[in-house]
Input
Amino acid sequence: DAKTTQPPSMDCAEGRAANLPCNHSTISGNEYVYWYRQIHSQGPQYIIHGLKNNETNEMASLIITEDRKSSTLILPHATLRDTAVYYCIVRANNAGNMLTFGGGTRLMVKP
Amino acid sequence: GAVVSQHPSRVICKSGTSVKIECRSLDFQATTMFWYRQFPKQSLMLMATSNEGSKATYEQGVEKDKFLINHASLTLSTLTVTSAHPEDSSFYICSARVGSGRVREKLFFGSGTQLSVL
Output
């Protein structure tokens, strides 16, 4: 799986949009971009994933650059409950189906 | 979304005893489940891939005789930490694949088990 680079930590004001970047410059054509988050002492929670088009669901939006070398997860109106570690993972869906986690970004939403 | 139930959520045991952790897919069948371990302030590390009806595949450095994995049905995988020692204290998390086809496939995770070995 391609390696990803994320900032170790970010702060965001409650009610504002949280934009979490991820670099994956070595991503290959069959690899998807997945985002998960982990709230303290819980299992990771699936957020969103995409291949090349931008995606949106009830939790977040995923913006993937045209060259696919980076992406941004957007939480449109961050709440205190969004404080968590956010993991950006790239993988091919034929890669044994497991996920390889990097360090992630620790997002702190502040009042 | 799909539900993966993990039990127990927390266990404290004495050194030398064995501990079993269960992972169940509640509303879907999972032919493959994954077991991860996470130490404090670190990321998740894959321990093994559990395949229904066959032997688990372990990652390098993970002792298969110490971490016994059984996947006897399409909805249940168990991880048994045998002869536990304090260094086995960690947060153990299972996950299961849901969906078929590249677009819809996702992995869902259990809530984790915090193991403390005294």
